[in-house]
Amino acid sequence: MPSTQNPRTYRVKSFGCQMNVYDGERMAELLAEQGIAAAPEGEDADLVVLNTCHIREKAAEKVYSDIGRLRRADGSSPLIAVAGCVAQAEGNEIMKRAPAVKMVVGPQAYHRLPDMIREAGEGRRVTDTDMPAETKFGALPKRRRSGPTAFLTVQEGCDRFCTYCVVPYTRGAEVSRPYADLVDEAKRLVDAGAREIMLLGQNVNAWTGEDARGRRVGLDGLIRELAGIADLARIRYTTSHPNDMADGLIAAHAEVEKLMPYLHLPVQAGSDRVLKAMNRSHTAESYLKVLDKVRAARPDIALSGDFIVGFPGETDAEFEDTLKLVDAVGYAQCFSFKYSPRAGTPAATMAGQVPAEVMTERILRLQAALGRDQTAFNQASVGKTCDVLVERKGKFPGQWLGKSPWLQSVYFDGDVTVGDLVTVELTEAGYNAISARLLSPAHP
Ligand code: 5AD
Ligand code: SF4
């Protein structure tokens, strides 16, 4: 008999960014520590956590339809908690509109889930969207499980207030987790099987902390320390702001072998007027200068970015500036979005909202250009010999899938296993993936 009073199984469904995936993993660990087990695939769970994303599109409507879908054939519902950024932004509204939801918990408060579950079991509906001064991390269980690639949140929140973005409101002010805690969590993840660690933060390159000798260091200091963990093979970080690309971090790309040659550096637009209206505090030129420095440090670096088309007031000519910037950079991979107003952000009420059909036309043109560059980047990799971290089996028997240093998906045949780091020769490339020939089996 499934119980909402004393749930025995859980399911956490995470949407959106990698930080949400990280939070979802931490919530799962927390629930497991309470003796609640992961619900087997295909079976109903007593407790469902919807870990929502609010950054783009119709996030709130999606939450309501997800809640509706959780209703079982007999009309009952599991114990439902809404977590994540929609919970933070629209918690009260969710409680009013969706009686099936018993808990609303924001991204900075989910360490309190066990208490909330107890209260909900007593019939109360509980909301916790506090952003307490002490962070949740100390209250979470130690890491014990990991796949070959692990996420590690090092920094949360954002002080930059780009005018289109909800993050400063839903995730709060920038907070860097302490150096020693991060080194400890990284070591535990590696002990649990991680070969690659992806350092996460909304503004990850603004991370700062005090190293073991009490010196103030930036993200490069942390990266250099983590590179000393023997069984850790690869380090990545995302997402960065152009104005926080410190020289030390750029130098790390030249000097730290374990730091992978990949940089996700969102620019959003190519027009300086639009960038100013977005409150990005960089220009197209200053952004390109940063990329020049990064390329000087690491010539083979794969560059990635985010773009928004149709920001309020964006003219045709201003959109052309975005295409020019794309041509100037030659990205390896990018994410592009239609501007979508977020209630409470300055851009939502700006004049000159761009009609839907204009946005569609612009995003199609942008994605064609980005697709062309991504394919070209992949094709230019053909013939290279590189390491691949094996992530999972491919579609066909004997086939495996992993990531190149440049974060390309690489397929190959061979006798390997998940978590192996193998050497391959890249043989054939398309837009999304590269085929390869296995040269050497697993090596440490
Ligand atoms: N509309 C469209 N895209 C957005 N992003 C953030 N807010 C919005 C919005 N309101 C995009 C930006 C950011 C990425 C994570 O999401 O490109 O870099
Ligand atoms: Fe949002 Fe801008 Fe902060 Fe990125 S830098 S999280 S886009 S406010």
How does this structure look, described?
By secondary structure, the chain is an alpha/beta fold. The radius of gyration is 23 Å and the shape is globular. It contains twelve helices and 21 strands. It starts with 8 loop residues before the first strand and ends with a strand. Helix 4 links the parallel strand 5 and strand 6. It has a six-stranded parallel β-sheet with strand order 2-1-3-4-5-6, with helices on both faces. Strands 17-18-19-21-20 form a five-stranded mixed beta barrel. It has a three-stranded parallel β-sheet with strand order 7-10-13, sandwiched between helices. Helix 2 (59-69) crosses helix 3 (84-97), helix 7 runs parallel beside helix 8 (247-255) and helix 11 (316-329) runs parallel beside helix 12. The chain has four domains: 2-133, Rossmann fold, CATH 3.40.50.12160; 142-260, Transcription Regulator spoIIAA (2-Layer Sandwich); 270-381, 2-Layer Sandwich (Transcription Regulator spoIIAA); 385-438, Nucleic acid-binding proteins (OB fold (Dihydrolipoamide Acetyltransferase, E2P)), CATH 2.40.50.140.
Summarize the structure.
The protein has helices at 18-33, 59-69, 84-97, 113-121, 167-170, 179-191, 219-226, 247-255, 272-277, 284-297, 316-329, 356-381; strands at residues 9-14, 37-38, 47-52, 79-83, 101-105, 126-128, 149-153, 155-156, 175-176, 196-200, 208-210, 216-218, 234-238, 262-264, 302-309, 333-338, 385-393, 399-403, 409-413, 421-429, 433-440. The chain has 444 residues and is an alpha/beta fold.
